[in-house]
Structures are given as structure tokens and as C-alpha cells.
Amino acid sequence: MKITANAVAGTLESSDVYVKVEPCDTLEIEIESVVYNQFADDIKASVKEVLDELGVESGRISINDKGAIDCVIQARVETAIKRAGGNK
Amino acid sequence: MSKLVESIKEAIKLCGLKDGMTISFHHHMRNGDFVLNMVMDAIAEMGIKDLTVNASSVFDVHEPLIGHIKNGVVTGLECNYMGAKVGKAICEGILEKPVIFRTHGGRPSDMEKGTSVIDVAFIAAPTADDMGNCTGKFGPSACGSIGYAFADAMNAKKVVVITDNLVEYPLADFSIPEVYVDYVVAVDQIGDPSGIVSGTTKITRDPVGLKMASYAAKVIEASGLLKDGFSFQTGAGGATLAAAKYIKEMMLEKNIKGSYGMGGITAYMVDMLEAGCFKALLDVQCFDLDAVRSIRSNPKHMEVSATQYAGVSGKSAGVDNLDVVLLGATQVDLDFNVNVHTDSNGYIMGGSGGHSDTAAGSKLAIIIAPLTRARLPLVVDRCLCKSTPGSTIDVVVTQRGIAVNTKYGKNADLKEKLIAAKLPVCEIEDLKKMAEELAGVPKPVKLTDRVVANVIYRDGTLLDTIKAVK
Fold first, then answer.
1. Which of A18, B269, B417, B457 has its CA 20 to 30 A from that of B106?
2. Positive or negative, the Cα torsion across B89, B91, B96, B102?
3. Biggest CA-to-CA distance, chain B
4. Are residues B159 and B231 in the same domain?
5. What's the 3-state SS for B146-204?
6. Do residue B360 and residue B276 come from a single domain?
């Protein structure tokens, strides 16, 4: 799936995550999290898993995490990407 | 005769404040306090250095303290609670000498025992006369009780009353009498009363919080303590206030006449008093303006000193007869020790206040907190800071399960009662496991070996240390 437009998903509420995706020639992932010290690796793994599943090879993915659990992060990332690229 | 002097600077001069001395403040104006900053600015301008500040609590409004620490005016800090702004700076190591954390009961008792010596106490007084009789009940900056300031007034070598509502002598219905006061200063404003209300003094609408509150109320009911003569304290957290509302409903329904409510008093405790749930309120500080109105007008709403509230130096204290206290926590460990000093990254953002005093005194000390907060589990192997010893905690209530502390040879019967009441009783280890299954296992926080604060228990012994954050 290719990211062709800007899109967002999620909120900045505690235990949620705000995901922003933008078109970009390369793949860039930025992660900001209130639990970065404790869960940075888990968050990165969650994001990567969704990108791989959807076949996303380029785009700027910005994660602003307020302590979301993995399934929430994955759902928000998936939604943002699908909003940014249509279903194909 | 009059004790009125022209300015804060003149009072400081007359008190003979010198480098290396200790000064004290109380925190009833909470995050609306102007007095600590006014006095510290005056001291800095006068060139006095190397002072220890003993403030019953340090709030975010006191952020200018950071500057006074950096420029050497303040080289020691002692308090019972510290907000996140100053707390973060302390954890980054700006103060060479470790902060001394006491409890609301330990602070006045250490003054009375002579282990904490105050050279000059500054009392923020919403109303005072020119001889120093003062109170928090009246005036444009009324804050209600000034219970924490009694020990300062009675034990400091010099006492300065700072007011923005100077009245003719004698002030009727004073709290602190003139016998302790050396000087009186009138200023434009001692604080902003809207800052008395902190963010946490409203009943939660969060379904998780309401679930916890409902469980906590059921634990109290099942414990058998909810009967005539019931005494109760709750903090100002959203879920604990919701629990108070459920308890009120149960008391009214069963026509239970309680004895007293205590602590920092909120509108919800006032409401319980007025509904006949309690004979009296023992109030060491007001958490909102409804409590201020009540203490001014209702003789059953009584001001108490911190010593009478929670001290160990008096012959008895209110906490000694407390049936139930509801308390919060940032972390609880497998031995039921509780952290209320630091956040999960190790930064100071609180303090004991009366947490460990009431836990020690009460028959039933209940911790009420969510299983996880922003992905971080409540229950950990070892707390980053031991604020309250696990031996004084009886029950931990979360939205997913209730752990009864039977680790110290007590509460076996309580556990049976809660199981019989069909409450979701589990082990403390189960709460940790549930959280980790849901949210993952957090990596441990890296701290340095440098001690930035010593946590002193109510009896004066060292309970734990807080280390600088990497």
C-alpha cells in the first residue's frame, strides 16, 4: 500500500496514541511516547508489524503515544495508513 | 503596642535572619500561594544565602525556588509533598543536599521533639490583627483551616504573620493566637483562592474510576466497620471521592450515624456532614472553597492542627481512631509498600502528605488505583520509592481485582468477608500478572546512585531514599 495523502488516526488521550502519516520518498518513523523508557522496543515492533502487513515501503509515520497498548497502536497505525492510501 | 511592620524585608531584618538558617512555610493556599515566592524574592534581594526552606508542601506555583537553589539562596529543602516542576529539577540533581521528605504528622512532631529547628516561620494569614491573632476562615484570600501552620507558630524562634486582610484588634474566632507571633506584615495579596482547588478534587466520571470506587465502598461495607460511630478519611482523588459518594448513600440508606470525617476536607465531606453522616469534621486543610465556607459557618466543622490530625508527639491524634482511609498510589509492590513520591520514570511528583500517617493509624487502609495507567502497571516487584510501609496497608482495590494484604499475619478474616461478599478477591501477584498480560512488561527505569531525597517516616526514622534520574 502506498501513502498518497496526509492522514491521522487516534487521540492524545491517556492510553491512546495519535498517528500521523504523510507521503515521503523514504520510510521514516518517528516515535514519541510517555512510556518510551519502558516500552520503546514494543512500540517500534508494533508499528513495523503493521507496515509489513500492509506492504508500506515509504512514508513519514509519526507516533505520539500516550501509553497505548500494542493492539491500540496497531489499530491506529492501520487506520491512518488506510485513510492515507485508500484500500488498495 | 503593635507588631505591624512596614514590609517583608523589615520583618526579615528584625527577625535577624542570617546565612545558614532555616525558614518555614505552610501550604494552605496550595497552588494559589504567593507568600513563599514573595518572601524568597525579598530574601534573595537582601543577599541572604545558604538557607534551608521547610515548607509543608511545595507546589508548581513555587517553581521560582529552582532559581533560588541555582543562585545559592536555598541550599536545603524539606517538605511533605513536592509538585512535579520542582520535583523534576531535584531529580536532575540541582540541589547538593538531599531533600528531606516528612509526613504531615512527622513534620510537626519533629519540630516539637526538637529534631527540626525553625529559625523564622512565615505564616500566610488570610485575616490577622496587628498583634498577630490570625485565621484562614475570613478575608478575600480565605483558605479555611491553617492546621499545618500551628506547629510552625508554636515552635519557630521567630514568627512572621503575612496577611492581606488586616483587621482591628482583637480578631474574633482566631486560629493562631498572638502569643506566638513576633511581627505582622500587610501585603496586597497573599494568594489566589482559586488556586486552592487542585485538579483532583472532582468526582470521576471515568467508568474505570467508578468501578474501583464501587468496589472500595463494597469492601468497606463488607469489612463490618460501616456502623454507628464510623470514622473516615478520603483524599481528593477522583475515584476516592466517588467512593465517598457511594459510602454516603449506604450510610443514609441504613441510617448509620458516623463519628467523624477527617483530613484535607472537600465539598463531598461537607456534604456528608450536612447530611448527618458524621457528627463532626476534623479539618487540617481545605481542598475547595465549599469546605472554606463550611469551616467558617458550621461549628461542627472543626479546625485541627497537624499534630492533632496525624502527629506522633501528642498524647493522641485523630488518625489513631480512624476506621477507614481511602488512599491513592502511583505504585504498589508485592509486599504492599506504596509509592506516592515518584512517577514511573523516577521523577518526584508528590509525597506522603498524610498517606503513611493515616495508613498507620486506621483500622482499614485501602489503596484505590487502576490496574494500569498509560500502559504502566500499578503493581511492581519493588516500588521506586517506599512512601508507606506495606505492613500498614490492608487492601488494594483495582477495577479488575482486589488484593487483601495477609502478608503480615493479619486480615485473614477480612479476606474471608470480602470473598463471602462475592467481591473479586485475588492475590497481589495476580494484579501484576493481569496488568503485564494486557500491557506488556515494562523495562526497568535507570537511576543513578546519587541520593536526591531522604524519605523520613512519621516516627523520624529513614524509610527510603530517592535517587537522581539518569
1. B269
2. positive
3. 71
4. no
5. CCCHHHHHHHCCEEEEEECCEECCCCCCCCECHHHCCEEEECCCCECHHHHCCCCCCCC
6. yes
Do B176 and B271 fall within a single domain?
no
Number of Cβ pairs < 8 A linking chain A and chain B = 39
Mutate to test the interface with B, among A38, A66, A73, A76 (most CBs of B within 10 A): A38
- Where on the phi/psi map is residue B291: left (φ > 0), alpha (ψ -120 to 50), or beta? alpha
Please tell me the pTM assigned to this model: 0.94
Q: Which of B375, B445, B447 would you mutate first to test chain A, the one with the most A CBs within 10 A?
A: B375
Partner-chain contact A69 B440, CB within 8 Å: yes
User: Has residue A88 got a pLDDT over 50?
Assistant: no
Q: How far apart are CA A14 and CA B375, in angstroms?
A: 9
Query: pLDDT tens digits for B236-265?
Result: 777 888 999 999 999 999 999 999 999 899
Within 10 angstroms of residue B71's Cβ, the number of other Cβ atoms is: 10
Give the integer Cα–Cα distance in Å for B174 and B182: 16
Reported ipTM: the value is 0.90
CATH number of the domain bearing residue B123: 3.40.1080.10
Furthest CA-CA distance within chain A: 36
Q: What is the CATH number of domain A7-85?
A: 3.30.230.10
For residues B187 and B131, membership in a common domain is answered with yes
